[in-house]
Specification:
Layout lengths: L5 E10 L2 E7 L8 E2 L2 E3 L6 H13 L7 E10 L4 E11 L13 E8 L9 H7 L2
Parallel strand pairs: 1-6
Antiparallel strand pairs: 1-2, 1-4, 2-3, 2-7, 5-6
Amino acid sequence: MNNIPRVWVGVFILRDNKILLWFRKWAHWEWTWAPPGWHLEFMETFESCVIRETKEETNIDINNVEFLDLTNDFFYKENKHYITIFMKWEYLWWELKNMEPDKCEKWEWFDIDNLPSPLMLPVENLLSK
């Protein structure tokens, strides 16, 4: 099972040329900035994955998400391989809440042209395309 790539699906939530990221404090991407998202479950669509995860992590109900891009990510130190699917959605008005404080240090909006560091590896790989 360790030799099988995992699928991670994340969503870039956009508002006024800004993007919502969380500072992760757990798992193999700990202490990096990342969009909402998590592993794709069996028989789940990319859209339903990010809708579920965004609600669980931020209490924001999203819909009409669009496919953005994907990356093929190798975590050599952890001996992990991920296929990362990126989606996007335009933020409207929902109140953002940190629903998983044990996993998330904080949520912040960042200018798309001035992203924080360090970013999770899949986001770095996406930006380097």
